[in-house]
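#help-structures

NK: newbie question. if I give both the sequence and a SMILES, will the prediction place the ligand too? trying with zinc ion
OV: yes, paste both and it writes out the complex. here, I ran yours:
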Amino acid sequence: MAGGLSPQQAERYARHLSLSEVSHRGQQRLLQARVLVVGVGALGSPAALYLAAAGVGTLGLADHDLVRLSNLQRQVVHRTASVGMSKVEAAATQLAELNPEVRVDRHPYAVTAENAMALFAEYDLILDGTDTFAARYLLSDAAYLTGKPLVHGSIFRIEGQVTDFVPGRACYRCLYPEPPPPGLVGDSPAVGVFAPLPGVIGTIQAAEAIKLLTGRGDPLVGRVLLHDSMAMTFRELRYRRDPACSLCGDHPTIRALVDYEAFVATGSAR
Ligand SMILES: [Zn+2]
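OV: that's the protein plus ligand as structure tokens.
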């Protein structure tokens, strides 16, 4: 045993153990960590692959959807033979082949206002791989209300962004108090996605999760990283907790999960 690791673990994680930014201590933390990946699609694919490779002890996968042929252009955890299968089951099989030491908890259903609190309570960190505004507000609210850090990522056509929401240090509502007008920003399949873009964003999300879990580095807290894959630029915007935020502000009005479909459709929480 090398620092509590088996010989196989010492070999598998050798390049982390010799890296001062992770080391035995950080690797032990990863092995004990529980991360929930919500959405096993374009962002969840690279994020889950890297978190499994890096030795996160328990990976929860939540997604209600089935693998479709049109997903394979960018959702790299899935295989052609998996078309028609549950995304959670398909990904779990691939992750087990990559690293059988990782325990994969399967949640093959949609995360909703009814189940999010209980689900999030089981994990140390939540990674947002969803693709709707309703889901982003739901995940941010539930992560804040359960006291869990949330690594947010989103993509649109050729652009993406990443930031970390740590409870008490701002939330998605601080950045976006109001949802975009319905119909203005499409989640529809007619909107294209540059294949490697979610690989870039989802991989940065995995890096942020590992940093938050090991307590190393300078995480994207209070900073949103904006990426344009055509210009191939990365910009950073700083933001702060909004004292007027309806969730994490000084006088919050949201103390429980709301109806997110209605909020996104009308801009008002009920
Ligand atoms: Zn807030």
